[in-house]
Structure formats: C-alpha cells, structure tokens
Amino acid sequence: MKELSLHILDIAQNSIKAEAEVLRIAIIESLYEDQLTIKIKDDGIGMDSETVKKVVDPFYTTRTTRKVGLGIPLFKSSAEQCEGYFNINSQLGKGTEIVAVFKHSHIDRVPLGNMPETIITILNGCDEMDLIYTHDFNGYTFTLNSKEIKKLLDGVPISNNDVIRWLRDYVAEGLAEIYSEGSSK
Ligand SMILES: Nc1ncnc2c1ncn2[C@@H]1O[C@H](COP(=O)(O)OP(=O)(O)O)[C@@H](O)[C@H]1O
Ligand SMILES: [Mg+2]
C-alpha cells in the first residue's frame, strides 16, 4: 500500500468486525533506534491458532478462492520488506494484537500517511467502540482517548460534523507538536 495509515485502517476494520469494545493504536517512532512500530490491539472475539496461521499465510490454503482477504499478509510483507518484522497474537474470546516494525529510514518504507483522517474514519465508523490512540515521536507522546472525548461531548455524537472537524485539528496539532518537539532535541 502507498501509506502505512491504509494498513492501519484495514487492520482497525478487522477489530470493528470482531466487535471490539476498545481499540488501541500505538505508533512509536524512534529516529535513534531507526524504527517505526505500529501496534494495534483489540478486545474483540479473537481467533484460534489455526485461524491465525490461515490469515497470516496467503498460501496456507491451496484452493483458488480464498475466503479471507489479504489485509494481514500485506501488512506483514510491508514490514518484512523494510528490515522489520510482524507479529500477531490472538486468543479466542480475548482479543488480538498485531505488531509491525519497520526500519524507519528504509528506502521502501512508505510514508505514514494522513493519521488525523485515519483516526476520524475509524471513530466515525463505529460509535460503540472506543479508541485509544497514542503516538510517540522520539520520546514525545500524543494521546487521544475517545472515552474522554465522549464524556466532554455530553451526548453529542462523535460523528457530528463540528466534532469531526475539531477532532481532525486536534490530532493534526497534537502530531505537529510531537514532531516539532521530538525533532529539536
Ligand atoms: N482483530 C481480529 N479479530 C478477530 N478476527 C480477525 C481479526 N483480524 C482478522 N481476523 C480474521 O482474519 C480474517 C482475515 O483478515 P484480513 O487479512 O484483514 O482480510 P479480510 O478482513 O478482508 O477478511 C478476517 O476475515 C477475520 O476472520
Ligand atoms: Mg481486513
């Protein structure tokens, strides 16, 4: 994919389908370690180990038609092509955690993409699920917790146009801040 945020959106949609109540997205960028880590964790229905094997390996089944999509294998190969690694941990009834690590400076690492838009799309797509997004850049962290925002909104839905606009700016400004602070160190 052209941007890592498209992978994040795809993986988050799996969590929504899996009826997660809380979705955690953590992005950790460290220029010192030359690493970009993406962790996506949900408390949805989870998968048994057979299913995990099946969804990770696109060639697991010899049939010509594959019942499940390629979102997970694509994310895995993106990381592995960038001297990184991919890990998935899932437990039936408990939830799923996916970790993808990239070499930050790798020539094939695509840009992160538009995170404010991605966060809004996820929040807009599922009113019942809460999202905790943390983004760390060289030790400076931005956090968004939809549970806290909903409390402040006092009944106004997150999908409200004004709320969405405000959220987009809030995330964009928060990220601009950590990028600027983390770069000037
Ligand atoms: N977070 C998750 N919780 C439970 N099941 C999941 C999760 N992520 C993926 N799966 C299972 O793995 C399958 C493959 O996911 P994916 O590769 O993204 O393709 P697709 O979503 O198009 O089916 C899903 O259809 C679902 O059955
Ligand atoms: Mg998917």
CATH architecture: 2-Layer Sandwich
Mean pLDDT: 93
Structural class: alpha+beta
Instruction: Tell me about the largest β-sheet.
Output: 6 strands, mixed
* CATH fold title: Heat Shock Protein 90
Helical fraction equals 40-55%
CATH class wording: Alpha Beta
Please provide the ordered H/E string of secondary-structure elements.
Answer: HEEHHEEHEEHH
Global geometry: globular
**What is the terminal-to-terminal distance?**
32 Å
Rounded to the nearest angstrom, the radius of gyration is 17 Å
Bound heterogens, unique: adenosine-5'-diphosphate, magnesium ion
* Low-confidence runs: none
Give the number of DSSP strands: 6
The figure for the number of domains is 1
- Spatial strand arrangement across the major sheet: 3-4-2-1-5-6
The proportion of strand residues reads 25-35%
Number of helices: 6
Q: Can you characterise this structure?
A:
By secondary structure, the chain is an alpha+beta fold. It has one domain (4-183): 2-Layer Sandwich (Heat Shock Protein 90), CATH 3.30.565. The chain contains six helices and six strands. The protein has helices at residues 4-17, 49-56, 71-80, 115-125, 146-153, 161-183, and strands at 22-30, 35-42, 85-91, 95-103, 130-137, 140-145. A six-stranded mixed β-sheet has the order 3-4-2-1-5-6. β5 (130-137) and β6 form a beta hairpin. It is globular and about 45 Å long. The model has no long low-confidence stretch (mean pLDDT 93).
